[in-house]
Amino acid sequence: MTQTSRPVAFVTGGATGVGRATAIRFAEQGHDVVVNFLGPEIAAAQETVEMIESSEVCSLAIQCDVSDNEQVVLMAADIFERFGRLDVLVNCAGATQFVDHTDLDGMTESMWDRILAVNTKGPFFVSRACVDMLRAGTGGSIVNVSSVAGVSGFGSSIAYCASKGGLNTMTKSLARALAPEIRVNAVCPGPIDSGWLRKGLTDEQMQSRVKSFPIPRLAQPDDIADTILFLACGTSLTTGQLLVVDGGRTMG
Q1: Structural domain includes residue 3
Q2: Do 218 and 170 touch, CB atoms closer than 8 A?
Q3: Smallest Cα–Cα separation from 235: which of 139, 127, 119, 129?
Q4: Is residue 197 part of a domain?
């Protein structure tokens, strides 16, 4: 085991988008960073590692499907073997399908299974596997990357909204279960300008979604990374909270 004196952050789904922006932000703040990715993302994951290491910290990329508990347990063991500690876990890995909410038959069982497995079971499996490392330090923190879809019921598909609603509730449950040693919070972004969103929507459709917002623009990955960093490191008394970052769209 190699023990590091620097704090360690672990970002699932860290190869691209919000995950990459978050991993880089933690590196800039002096954290060693572990990046989790799926097999097809190996080139992007290596690029992210190179960006992280430009901040003169250490990085490790680990391929793992977070919905597979056996893989997750092995991944956590690899992190402990390499760094000997963990201070921050960011559950950012996610999955969706773009299916109109009125197309009930289009939302297939296999889609449901994959979306719930990655978005709801995955954060639980990873959090459970990392609890002992987080508890061993001082002020461990988990940040779940959820979605405003889990609050409003409006999003890429009914299954996606349901999965993020479940993640929001689980955030509160884990905050109670893991207190006081570990804080657990979630960020709930609105539409993010990312490759993921562009797979399902045209530029015109994306802009139409935000034009009526009080702050009428798509979030950038760095906007969400800023919030994740705050929840992880910028506060010590915040737990069980769902912080919506959507340009004001869901204000009551």
Answers
A1: no
A2: no
A3: 139
A4: yes
Sheet with strand 182-189: strands edge to edge: 59-63, 32-37, 8-11, 88-91, 140-145, 182-189, 242-245
Q: Positive or negative, the Cα torsion across 39, 13, 126, 117?
A: negative
The residue annotated as part of the active site, out of 37, 83, 124, 160, is 160
Instruction: Specify if 93 maps to a domain.
Output: yes
β-pairing, 88-91 vs 59-63, is unpaired
Active site residue 76: no
- pLDDT tens across 77-112, in order? 999 999 999 999 999 999 999 999 999 999 999 999
Report if residue 127 sits inside a domain.
yes
Any idea what the CATH number is for the domain that residue 100 is in?
A: 3.40.50.720
Q: Check residue 219 and report its DSSP letter.
A: B
Check: CB of residue 158 under 8 Å from CB of residue 109. no
Residue 210's CB is within 10 A of a number of other CB atoms, namely 18
Q: 192 by DSSP, 3-state: which?
A: strand
Count Cβ neighbours within 10 Å for each residue of 135-154 and write b for 16 or more, e otherwise.
Answer: eebeebbbbbbbbbbbbbee
For 167, counting Cβ atoms within 10 Å of its Cβ (0-12 exposed, 13-18 middle, 19+ buried), the class is buried
Q: How many domains, the chain?
A: 1
pTM across the whole model: 0.94
Domain hosting residue 40, numbered range = 8-239
pLDDT per position as a tens digit, 43-84? 999 999 999 999 999 999 999 999 999 999 999 999 999 999
Contact 223, 193 (CB under 8 A): no
CB atoms within 10 A of CB 34: 28
